[in-house]
Amino acid sequence: MTSYAAAGVDIEAGDRAVELMKAKVARSRRPEVVDDASGFAGLFDASALLRYRRPLLATSTDGVGTKVMLAQALGKHDTIGIDLVGMVADDLVVCGAEPLFMTDYIACGKVVPERIAEIVGGVAEGCRLAGCALVGGETAEHPGAMGPDEYDLAGAGTGVVEADRLLGPDRVRPGDVVLGLASSGVHANGYSLVRHVIRAAGAGLEDTVPELGRTLGEELLEPTRIYALACLELARAVEVRAFAHITGGGLAANLARSLPGSADAVLDRGSWTPPPIFEVIAGYGGVPRDDMDRTFNLGVGMCAIVPAGAADAALALLAGRGQQAWVLGEVVPGTGQARFAG
């Protein structure tokens, strides 16, 4: 006789993982969260939206790509969930939406309760940093399809923005200023190239790299910076025309998505120094600058476009939150492109 356990699925391990993660998930709770005794769905009290005149719901979904392979290789699973929230919540905030809640999905070859709890604990911590609640999720065991130490995770989030506060390209005007908000490193994009470069160079994740002041693996697993709360505060305090989340595709391509067809953003490459990890990646792999530009954030994780007269106040507010930011460029008449000066 064959059982589910014999096929490689351990239901009891899944139940134990749920118990281990409960306390961590509770730290992300918002007052609007309503308990569902069955556990089949996450509930959120929509009466909280009554304070809006015309609430627009925003939704986003994403994963963390092959960065999970580095977490698996190093046996460090407690921060990859922060990356997941950063990818989702900071996409929501680009239109001015406040992230309200998230759900996650983990597929793995074998449920190791402690490992799953670490992953979900990172998601919960990311939600806390973004001001949203983790209201539910799913862990699926896929023996045969994935190795016992392999997993992948994805998530979806929902936010809300007042219709007349919706940010975007239509608000942007020539003469506006582009602010760059510093990233914490590579974030969660470009890791297929990173892994290729490391492999080709014969470098090890546990190698200490003098330029980084720590091991290569520690640097590459640095979690994604989450900008949601800082961006929302900025939009409340000063006039913000648009945000741009700098993810896959690099700085110019993502910033162009937040520009109207009648304007360009001209960026000053000399206004900031990319973190050393990008020089290390380029050096290890001989990666041309154009490819670095198209693949990585290069130290700019989010952009804010504001009127020139609001730039100083915006920078002061961000500095007060401990967020490094600077004037990255300006908006000029054009055709909807972001480009570097010169």
TrEMBL record:
It comes from the Bacteria. Coiled coil: none annotated. GO terms for cellular component: cytosol. One of its GO terms (biological process) is adenine biosynthetic process. Gene3D superfamilies: PurM-like C-terminal domain (3.90.650.10), PurM-like, N-terminal domain (3.30.1330.10). One of its GO terms (molecular function) is phosphoribosylamine-glycine ligase activity. It is an enzyme of class 6 (ligase). Keywords: ATP-binding, Cytoplasm, Ligase, Nucleotide-binding, Purine biosynthesis. Residues 48-161 form the PurM-like N-terminal domain. Pfam families: AIRS, AIRS_C. Residues 173-336 form the PurM-like C-terminal domain. Pathway: Purine metabolism; IMP biosynthesis via de novo pathway; 5-amino-1-(5-phospho-D-ribosyl)imidazole from N(2)-formyl-N(1)-(5-phospho-D-ribosyl)glycinamide: step 2/2. It is found in: Cytoplasm. It catalyses: 2-formamido-N(1)-(5-O-phospho-beta-D-ribosyl)acetamidine + ATP = 5-amino-1-(5-phospho-beta-D-ribosyl)imidazole + ADP + phosphate + H(+). InterPro entries: PurM-like_C_dom, PurM-like_C_sf, PurM-like_N, PurM-like_N_sf, PurM_cligase. NCBIfam families: purM. PANTHER family: TRIFUNCTIONAL PURINE BIOSYNTHETIC PROTEIN ADENOSINE-3, TRIFUNCTIONAL PURINE BIOSYNTHETIC PROTEIN ADENOSINE-3-RELATED. Belongs to the AIR synthase family. This is Phosphoribosylformylglycinamidine cyclo-ligase.
